[in-house]
Design brief:
The protein has 2 domains: 228 residues, 3-Layer(bba) Sandwich (Glucose Oxidase, domain 1), CATH 3.50.30.50; 33 residues, no CATH class. Helix content is 14%, strand content 19%. It has 5 helices and 13 strands.
């Protein structure tokens, strides 16, 4: 069954040296994402770095691999039903191009005009005011949401395949607790992002095409966090949840429990994450969000009282570089 109801929801991140000031001194690694030497644990405790996250130092390309975690934002991007389409045109061109309406004469530079684009298209985040008008919008989010954050990736693709492509199920708090023990991750780091990898991101390039059958286009059914598991994640350190799909909610959840819960608590969602997520480890890696801080003014609609509830976002991750 293809969903027709889901309320879905670029660029490279900026330099992260300042954000990494707190990570000073963790040049020496550990033997695995789930465990560390006594020295590593001492350094982590002293610097506030979560246990298991000292091995990856984004400042050191010899040890850390930067991974693009977004999707390309083009007019072929999958659009949630009802959202505006993505349309753009060339406004100026370096040289003359008679076939382009505004480029009959060269301008010496290239400029594009976005004619239509929803703020929840492509890789993006949702602010709390998306579902709650009294909660913070994009420009009022604390900077901790945009700094370097610990990443937890729960790979649910095997669960979907084991059900022959049926993705209609919840990821519960008890499943997450067992998963944390099974993987050796142990705990949810403070101020972290916890996301699901479903594998659906590999179908993003199909755009709005619907393919008969299960687990073969971007609109097929996928699991998601329940409201209760989202609350559990928040209580144990997460500040955002997400997925490599339209959002963190299960297709069967027509109440959008995960998004409703995390935004009510003051957290955010990470949506349309790209296939690069498959390269990240279950724990021990880092993610950074960076994008426009759209803001309204008193001259805007409703006097600017309703601000931007989300925006397209660059997402990059850092994982352990494998030895040659």
């Amino acid at each position: 069954m293809q969903r027709t109801w889901w309320h879905g929801k670029m660029g490279a991140p900026t330099l992260i040296a300042v954000a990494l000031a707190l990570i000073a001194g963790f040049i020496f690694g550990m033997s695995s994402a789930g465990g560390a030497s006594a020295g590593d644990q001492t350094r982590a405790a002293a610097s506030g770095i979560p246990r298991g996250y000292t091995q990856v130092d984004p400042r050191d390309p010899a040890r850390s691999l930067q991974v693009f975690l977004g999707q390309p934002l083009s007019d072929n991007a999958p659009i949630f039903p009802g959202d505006p389409k993505f349309k753009w045109q060339l406004w100026n061109c370096v040289n003359a191009h008679p076939s382009v309406p505004r480029c009959h004469h060269g301008s010496g530079y290239t400029l594009e005009q976005i004619q239509s684009l929803g703020t929840h298209t492509g890789t993006h985040i949702l602010a709390p005011c998306h579902f709650h008008e009294n909660k913070p919008c994009l420009d009022r989010l604390p900077e901790k949401f945009f700094g370097l954050r610990p990443l937890i990736v729960i790979n649910v693709k095997p669960l979907i395949l084991a059900r022959h492509g049926h993705g209609d199920f919840f990821i519960t708090a008890s499943y997450i607790q067992n998963w944390l023990q099974r993987t050796g991750c142990g705990a949810i780091p403070r101020d972290s992002y916890v996301v699901l990898y479903t594998g659906l991101s590999s179908f993003y390039h199909l755009g709005n095409q619907r393919v008969p059958g299960r687990y073969n286009d971007y609109y097929d059914d996928v699991p998601g966090f329940s409201a209760a598991s989202t609350k559990w994640l928040w209580d144990h350190g997460a500040i955002g949840v997400g997925a490599d799909t339209f959002g963190p909610d299960a297709t069967l959840d027509q109440g959008f429990g995960s998004t409703t819960q995390i935004t009510a608590l003051g957290g955010i969602t990470l949506e349309n994450i790209g296939p690069g997520l498959a390269r990240m480890r279950p724990c021990g890696d880092w993610i950074e969000l960076n994008g426009p801080r759209l803001a309204s003014t008193p001259h805007d609609q409703l006097g600017g009282r309703l601000d931007f509830s989300g925006a397209w976002m660059g997402m990059d991750g850092w994982t352990l570089r494998k030895s040659a």
